[in-house]
Amino acid sequence: MTFEYKIADISLHEAGRHQIRLAEHEMPGLMSLRAEYGAAQPLAGARIAGSLHMTVQTAVLIETLVALGAEVRWASCNIFSTQDEAAAAVVVGPAGSPEEPRGVPVFAWKNESLEDYWWTAEQILTWPGAEKDPALGPNMILDDGGDATMLLHQGVEFEAAGAVPEPGEDDPHEYTIVLARLRASLAADPQKFTRLAPGIKGVTEETTTGVMRLYQLAEAGQLLFPAINVNDSVTKSKFDNKYGIRHSLPDGIMRATDVLIGGKVAVVCGYGDVGKGAAEALRGQGARVVVTEIDPICALQAAMDGYQVAHLDSVIGQGDIFITTTGGKDIIMAADMLKMKDKAIVGNVGHFDNEIDMAGLAAIDGVRKVEIKPQVHEWVLDAGTAAARSIIVLSEGRLLNLGNATGHPSFVMSNSFANQTIGQIELFTKDGTGEYAKDVYVLPKILDEKVARLHLDALGVELTELSGEQAAYLGLDVQGPYKAAHYRY
Ligand code: NAI
């Protein structure tokens, strides 16, 4: 059976399949979930619209969801993060061929335009036949950053209003493109999202930024279905965000610039989970790391971990490498970039590209952008004057660890994606039981501990078992959970 898809090059499928095979070995969490649930098929009947970086690791997640019974359509959640060979292998599927693909419809390629990106986001919500029979549409969302969830919510809102508003003056450029996509959609089918929304049983959300958007919707009473906050499973944010970045941030900087990190001054904006991993990695390479923070607790943590904590302004002329990790906006502005050293490197690993003022940079008088190679740009400032110098911006201010490298490695993503899979099973199989209302939930701790357990053997970890007496003394069950909900790890 053939199906629609849009990827860069299906002939890359073999290269992708080899990488997926190696990744499976490094993803014991996902592979044990396949073994545990493969026969029971808990996701039979689930039709999952997935929006998450289309990498090799995500391919293993997608094929796990399929192994558990789900039908899936997929897009990336970032214009630069797709690994084209992984996308090709997922489309072809383990048993298909390029002529007769039997995998999953994927709509993703590296280096999408923003217009392409929002088209792919709509494609995962557009299932064949659903325009006539909503039961053929998606009934679950798996999101990273919340774009698929946002598109659906805005679609419903504008369809109810009968029109898509004009963008406001302060709206970012990208939002203009979202509105244009919704306008086209509404013109073609005025009830598309309204028909779709009641069928959605829930969403599982991968990252800090997407979770923040979900809590805002829930607080406003606007969340249309239950949500599981995968990010705040301990085995997600304390592993992927920290240890994942510790690996993929230096990987991205090195592949992009090949600059020696040792001896340089690296400024890390934000000392949350991602910032902690970033700072540790850069220090591990021999950089002198300076942290900026707005939260006194995180600032104190950074100081106790041995980092200088300073205002960005105090170190703007000293830094060789600047990395934003805040999930906030307007962290490094054009005026800051004007004060940087010649050839300073600027990059972001927070979810969205608004941490670095790219529009402001492009608007600087006389600035010139030189492409060194894809996703690595030199911005020449004060060209033609004695003060001429340039800065290097990675991935146009978007996630550099995915744009300039291949994102987090498999083993850490196995933890995150085991949480995603369990979250999907939880919301799909408990639909209609009343256990989950239109609110945001984290997975029960016992399941979080289960995800960790699935990864111990592969590392040769010997886990000590509580005796019955010890358990009784601590007021715990021998099988866990071992910590109260408020414990912070
Ligand atoms: P977090 O909330 O733990 O950390 C963010 C930190 O930034 C906080 O400590 C906050 O106080 C600080 N901050 C906020 N505004 C600031 C400002 N103006 N200046 C300095 N510090 C500021 O969040 P987490 O989990 O570290 O995630 C950060 C971002 O990274 C999110 O957008 C998240 O979605 C994204 N992320 C990216 C990944 C990647 O692969 N690149 C992986 C995981 C998360």
From TrEMBL:
Pathway: Amino-acid biosynthesis; L-homocysteine biosynthesis; L-homocysteine from S-adenosyl-L-homocysteine: step 1/1. Binds 1 NAD(+) per subunit. CDD domains: SAHH (cd00401). Its main location: cytoplasm. It is an enzyme of class 3 (hydrolase). Residues 241-407 form the S-adenosyl-L-homocysteine hydrolase NAD binding domain. Coiled coil: none annotated. Transmembrane segments: none annotated. It comes from the Bacteria. NCBIfam families: ahcY (TIGR00936), PRK05476.2-3 (NF004005). This is Adenosylhomocysteinase. The gene is ahcY.
